[in-house]
Write a structure and sequence with these properties.
Elements lengths: L1 H5 L5 E4 L4 H12 L5 E4 L7 H6 L7 E5 L5 E5 L1 H11 L9 H26 L3 H15 L18 H11 L5 H10 L4 H14 L2 H4 L6 H10 L4 H13 L3
Parallel strand pairs: 1-2
Antiparallel strand pairs: 1-3, 3-4
Length: 244
């Protein structure tokens, strides 16, 4: 496999099918219209060639060909995304130093939000699930997107949007949370703006193309095997109301 990696000019995104951190980088590659190869690995049985590339042994890892110099492996999705932003097309991270730092801060916040959502989806206890759901909603509402705009900073898609979009992709399995936001939106403008931002990103073509066609099935199977309260509640709702 490592030999194959040395013989390609396309960036290779080492992946796990439902990893939200991988999706962040896939979103940016899709947005930049940059051809790439995505290689899924089994995280429970990581191949030796991958362990030789990534000192943290985590996905995503991006492998970039350097011609006669071989390949360079990048790890950590925020670092990968800043490289992709600079290397391909017009940079999304622009403006003065303070503006860039502000975006980087919210990218970092999105990482904490992803981990919080993952813990919520893994919860097996009904009471603890509700506690974690309330905490996750409170954390989500701390993000302040541009008022009434499609993207975090206004009219243009940016690194914060690419970083937080995986969280929004997974909200379909938390319909009770979306229900609370929709109820609050009747009297709270921030909830209205947040819902609009969520809709803009979930429907964005780069976000939709950042996951495979069987993503939903993989996601449901992964958490169902772990006795996820969220998935059980979602299935119960599907039984009652139907799912599309």
């Amino acid at each position: 496999m490592l030999g194959t990696l040395n013989n390609t000019d396309l960036p290779k995104l080492i992946s796990f099918p439902i990893c939200p951190f991988v999706q962040r980088s896939a979103i940016l590659l899709e947005y930049k219209n940059q051809p790439y190869e995505r290689i899924n690995i089994d995280l429970a049985n990581k191949p030796d060639w991958f362990l030789a590339l990534s000192p943290l042994a985590r996905v995503p890892t991006l492998v970039v060909s350097r011609g006669e110099k071989g390949v360079t492996a990048l790890f950590e999705s925020s670092v990968i995304n800043e490289y992709l932003d600079e290397a391909y097309g017009k940079p999304l991270l622009n403006g003065d130093s303070l503006s860039k730092a502000h975006s980087r801060a919210w990218v970092a916040y999105s990482e904490a939000l992803i981990m919080q959502q993952y813990a919520l989806m893994l919860e097996q206890n009904e009471e603890l699930f509700q506690v974690k759901l309330d905490a996750f909603l409170a954390a989500l509402k701390k993000i302040k997107p541009a008022e009434g705009k499609a993207y975090f900073n206004g009219e243009s898609f940016g690194l914060v949007d690419a970083s937080v979009a995986p969280v929004f992709t997974r909200l379909q399995w938390l319909p009770q949370l979306l229900g609370v936001l929709k109820t609050e939106a009747k009297t709270d403008k921030h909830s209205t703006y947040l819902l609009g931002w969520i809709d803009s990103l979930v429907s964005h073509i780069a976000v939709q193309n950042s996951v495979a066609g069987d993503f939903d099935a993989h996601f449901i199977d992964y958490f169902k095997k772990r006795n996820s309260v969220a998935i059980q509640r979602w299935e119960d709702l599907c039984t009652a109301d139907g799912c599309t």
